[in-house]
Amino acid sequence: MSSNIHANHLSLDASSSSSSSSSSSSSSSSSSSSSVHEPKMDALIIPVTMEVPCDSRGQRMWWAFLASSMVTFFGGLFIILLWRTLKYLWTVCCHCGGKTKEAQKINNGSSQADGTLKPVDEKEEVVAAEVGWMTSVKDWAGVMISAQTLTGRVLVVLVFALSIGALVIYFIDSSNPIESCQNFYKDFTLQIDMAFNVFFLLYFGLRFIAANDKLWFWLEVNSVVDFFTVPPVFVSVYLNRSWLGLRFLRALRLIQFSEILQFLNILKTSNSIKLVNLLSIFISTWLTAAGFIHLVENSGDPWENFQNNQALTYWECVYLLMVTMSTVGYGDVYAKTTLGRLFMVFFILGGLAMFASYVPEIIELIGNRKKYGGSYSAVSGRKHIVVCGHITLESVSNFLKDFLHKDRDDVNVEIVFLHNISPNLELEALFKRHFTQVEFYQGSVLNPHDLARVKIESADACLILANKYCADPDAEDASNIMRVISIKNYHPKIRIITQMLQYHNKAHLLNIPSWNWKEGDDAICLAELKLGFIAQSCLAQGLSTMLANLFSMRSFIKIEEDTWQKYYLEGVSNEMYTEYLSSAFVGLSFPTVCELCFVKLKLLMIAIEYKSANRESRSRKRILINPGNHLKIQEGTLGFFIASDAKEVKRAFFYCKACHDDVTDPKRIKKCGCRRLEDEQPPTLSPKKKQRNGGMRNSPNSSPKLMRHDPLLIPGNDQIDNMDSNVKKYDSTGMFHWCAPKEIEKVILTRSEAAMTVLSGHVVVCIFGDVSSALIGLRNLVMPLRASNFHYHELKHIVFVGSIEYLKREWETLHNFPKVSILPGTPLSRADLRAVNINLCDMCVILSANQNNIDDTSLQDKECILASLNIKSMQFDDSIGVLQANSQGFTPPGMDRSSPDNSPVHGMLRQPSITTGVNIPIITELAKPGKLPLVSVNQEKNSGTHILMITELVNDTNVQFLDQDDDDDPDTELYLTQPFACGTAFAVSVLDSLMSATYFNDNILTLIRTLVTGGATPELEALIAEENALRGGYSTPQTLANRDRCRVAQLALLDGPFADLGDGGCYGDLFCKALKTYNMLCFGIYRLRDAHLSTPSQCTKRYVITNPPYEFELVPTDLIFCLMQFDHNAGQSRASLSHSSHSSQSSSKKSSSVHSIPSTANRPNRPKSRESRDKQNRKEMVYR
To answer: Which contacts qualify for 95-101: CB closer than 8 Å, 24 or more apart?
Structure first.
């Protein structure tokens, strides 16, 4: 109030009171004058106004306010104790009386009548009714204050808010004198405070009713606060005066601040709750102690007649308490009263302890707050994905390099990384470089709160990365499966793409109810794809490199020099894309559209997504790779293209025959406004193109069958047919060759047995592992080599060389595949390698199942590197095994196709510089008419460096140790190194690009999986998950139809109808001729490394050229990657196309290596090898 005057400066106005005498007035004036000049007052004077009837004699009434609180507290405490005492005495008396009555009942027995018990029962019913009523009221009050209901939560929050409001009123009134006269009807703050305290009184009653132990409730902190704040307000109204008193105790309500925030579901983490608790306790104690100092210092000591007081504001007391707790003590403000100093003595002990313990902990909690602990704010019109799992600098940099590649068409996706460990400085710098598209949040996908922070429910997909270098792959897979479960449990509709290390762990994903591969969920199994890539390299070396480069985003690196890197990098810049075909292609056959795209649009289409008309089919949409000329393009067909960027692929969508038929520059093919005609005739090439294509007369719809007209082999086919009809079986899906389960003892070869078998044209798998090694899933390596689109006699024999303990653990998944043998030993033993005729194998695969937990990453691949160098250093300078086998009446398997009888060129020494996609045996054959063929060793090819092999690496940088004669820099990226470009090395890291490729187009993963696994389908995976093995099935038309699918092969240009194009011809002419004539789709070249040199070279290394242009010049030694149709007639004759699955011939041989079309050249002296072939066939039957 404006009329209130501070007691330290002004006295009571004598003229304002009519009853005051002149003497008293002068006395009062003198007192006032002395109080102005002296720092201490003689007495505290209560100011009054004319409107308020107040005691004009200056009498203090603080004791009345304090007495109201003390009487309330001690009176209530006395009543509670008295009630407990009486209740205890009553209980004791009743207990004694009960015992007396019980004794009387025992003595009287049944003498008591029923009527004597009836009044007792009536009393018990009355007591029970009373107890029931009291219990109901008590339960209702408990619910009201427990915040279990919405009403209770509102009430608790309201009480806290009003307590803070009362504390604010105290802060306002603290600027007034400690005690002053006030009119309740005119003082607005007093009215508000009165209303608050009435509410507190009602809430106190609820708490009292709900309390189980009334004594402990009476002594609670909140109850004490109410005792010393509520009654004085009512006294203030009665006395028309106000005493600041102990109203500062309302600050103790701040202790409940964390509870209130928890009720409101604001605080959820333990650290946040602890931080708020510490802060609320510290601040409430600080403010409460400051209020007590403010009271005693402004009032003075009672025994000193309140004359030793000093004028301190409340905020000066707050400052005093802070410098006291922190032991700074500047001395500018200090306590003068005895009560104040006594309080400071005790407070400094507790306050210092609290300051020393609470403040560091508060700072630690604030400092330890997650730097990346916020929440993601979705941007309107922009999608985001969540990436979690194994988040490291290497994994993130590889992912971002591919995901944000410039060749991708407008990537408007924000990447949100979620990991429970904060990033290191290097990773943090990487995030900052991509801050416009990348955000990082610290948390775990196993925590629903963290999933909510990254807005997983609105994310376009969730990608889970795996640690490819972990010591326990099964544990890593289990972690990723748990992440999938947690994410799917939080939001079942989210699309998840996860990396898996082990193939057998993919089955666990099928147990998740919301996992649905049809909705985009995908598991990229690194072991499955890695071994699938390696298996395809056994059929066509270099294919693993080509496929790995196709789904990896690489920028074009232009090299002016005419080196092998120039042509390799031109192919590396190609990627795989999908685009819907224009309606101008509807009704045309696949080869026709494929040729038009390649010639006119400069696009290579390798597959389409075909919609089956059969509605009962499980999967109406199927991806068909080079389906042939029997299939017509439908409206809205999705095509799979190989191109350098996404913009080029748009030509297939924009192409219009009416507008673009005469356009020669493919860059001018853009969207036109004309109406696309649906009934178009098949487009024909211009006369210029016809002439360029060599004037092929064959129509695409009249593809000739590959005629087998070898008179030597046809009479001997009865034996093969019988073998096929008795042995060859397929699994229940018809996708793979199958045989009855075999015991491992039946396929184990000793070293002498392996040497006597004289293996040739086979696959040697060198595997490092022991009984404790993690299983790598060799089934994924064998399945592509046992695909049903190979005929039985085309299957390569597989020989495993390694620890028998490890192979026994893998055998359960391999015992259903034919033509599999095991040689117990070690790949580092040259005797074991010679026993399996490694120099005659089509491919040597080096794998390791050992998880090397070595700090030095260079030593992680030590076993594979040592095995590779060991094989390359071997010398094969004796022909005892081959000559002995021949003298015993049989030749090594596969040698029959490389004998002089089948070669159009006899007596020619095979050049070591010419290799094929299959093994070139390190021998030469000289044909001498009238005599048995003489097998001698080629002295120029007697080194293990000419053995075709592919080595699996864990660490990319270790690729530098595989080739000692290359000039690769140790810091060179893997795809730029010579071993990788040549297809002799494969690292699992190249599969990282599949994550982003699958996100942008899930069909890419399906296509890659179809190419490398030999035909694995989700249905087959579900079957393997049930039985962990392939199940045999009868050959039905439906299952046999699954054999009719495309496979990858290599086509040699040395001989056959393509020989004329091999010497200076154009790749485009070869492409069109192979497509029109044989439905073969060419997509790359496997060229000798030094083929571009004008001088002859002895180097036999080759490199991969992906999708060369039309004008690319061919050389005779080129091998062409092609997609070949399944040939039903190949099973009737072994004199068909000589392909990589069963060919084994010399490097300069002009008959083809992989798929050479039979020529009409004379082949004299064929009967000379007939006898040896028949003997070898009998040997093969015994061996198999």
So the answer is: none
